[in-house]
């Protein structure tokens, strides 16, 4: 803080509040033995806006490595995509799980 040379009193000279980027979250898909590959590709296309080739690539990564990233979003959007994935999977009777990971 600066000081007025006459009074010695503090003078507020910070005019701009510090800004902070919102924390972003990865949405990660987990492998299981029951969800069909076709359904996972459909979810990647419809919920995560992937094209067919990228969706297939991510699905195979999850299938072979156990997990794979579908995208990185603000907290609210990431939560919504996780919830939508769970709801679609539940409707079809698949145990497919998506989780949030802080960036
Ligand atoms: N492992 C599944 C199968 O063999 C396919 C699968 C891929 C399931 C990705 C979940 O997130 C997943 N049918």
How would you briefly describe this protein structure?
This protein is an alpha+beta fold. The chain is built from 3 helices and 5 strands, in the order βββααβαβ.
Q: What is this structure's SSE topology?
A:
Layout: E1 2-3, E2 10-11, E3 24-30, H1 37-46, H2 52-65, E4 67-74, H3 75-92, E5 97-102
Antiparallel strand pairs: 1-2, 3-4, 3-5
Bound molecules: L-tyrosinamide.
Fold and architecture overview:
- With about 100 residues, the protein is of the alpha+beta class.
- The strands form two sheets. A three-stranded antiparallel β-sheet has the order 4-3-5.
- It is elongated, with a radius of gyration of 23 Å.
- It starts with a strand and ends with a strand.
- A hairpin with a 6-residue loop joins strand 1 and strand 2.
- It contains three helices and five strands.
- Helix content is about 40%, strand content about 25%.
- The chain has a domain of about 70 residues: Ribosomal Protein L30, Chain: A, CATH 3.30.1390.
- Helix 1 crosses helix 2.
- The longest helix has 18 residues.
- L-tyrosinamide binds next to strand 3, helix 1 and helix 2.
